[in-house]
Design goal:
By secondary structure, the chain is α/β, with parallel strands linked by helices. It contains 14 helices and eight strands. Strands 1, 2, 3, 4, 5, 6, 7 and 8 form an eight-stranded mixed beta sheet that branches. It is globular. The two termini are 13 Å apart. About 2% of the residues have low confidence.
Length: 298
Amino acid sequence: MDKKYILSLDGGGVRTLSSITFLKLLEKETGIKIHEKFDFFVGTSAGAISCLALAVKRFSSRELEGMWGTPNLRKIMRTSSWETRLGLLQAKPKYTNNGKREVLKNYFGRSTLGEATKPVAVLSYDIETRSPVLFKSYAKEDKDISLVDAGDATSAAPIYYPTAQVGDRYLIDGAIVANHPVLHGYAEAKKLFPESELRVLSIGTGLSKRPLKGEASKNWGIVGWLMHDLFGLMVESSLDHELAEDLIGEYYLRVNSPLNGVNRRLDDRSETNLNKIIKMGEDWWDKFGEKAVKLITE
């Protein structure tokens, strides 16, 4: 039976460097470019932006690493003029999206989804219709959407970035629906490749397993929950993984782990934290690397 290979990348802000570190080691071990090996790409937020770079611009893993390097992270996290000592009580999003769009334009230019060399789908969420939006390179209605707009929309994380506007739709980070978009990708790939054996590599960005205080949580309002990472709680469910494992079976590999010292916050771009993120990706390679090579080469 013909085999098709699917790559699914989670969102996770700066922690996406762990996913890219794993991909770089996979590319090095196999000698095969990621964009050449995989037949379908699906991602959320930062993972979606990487998928666009792979499927449309044919980036190598090293080019991906450069895109998420410290100079670009500084631009992406350009602080809003409304940032004040009020911290979590800020009146505006923590960051503007100007720097993010500038970085996206530098790498993607005027490219559109329709220019993809491999099918790619990126997840966002329409706040007016209260429904998920899957931008698809192979859908006629999405072909003219720019990569800059798609990348901005899929990564418009509430609190961190302003809502993105694409046409007449107002969109936020796809993590609201599924930070781990593997089921959306698998369902799409089944439609595109109905007669093929699907092999799925899904890479996360670490899971926060820090226990919260149950008794204290009874008294938390909006500030209390935000201080205890409400957004992180919403996006880090393991349910999608468990369902995918049951549905796809032996041809599904999930690469992820607890954060183990990496800052749970999505925007800690300190050198210390970035080094920990990269180390987490290297640890994943030690644990999952052999299985990943087997999945895509046998």
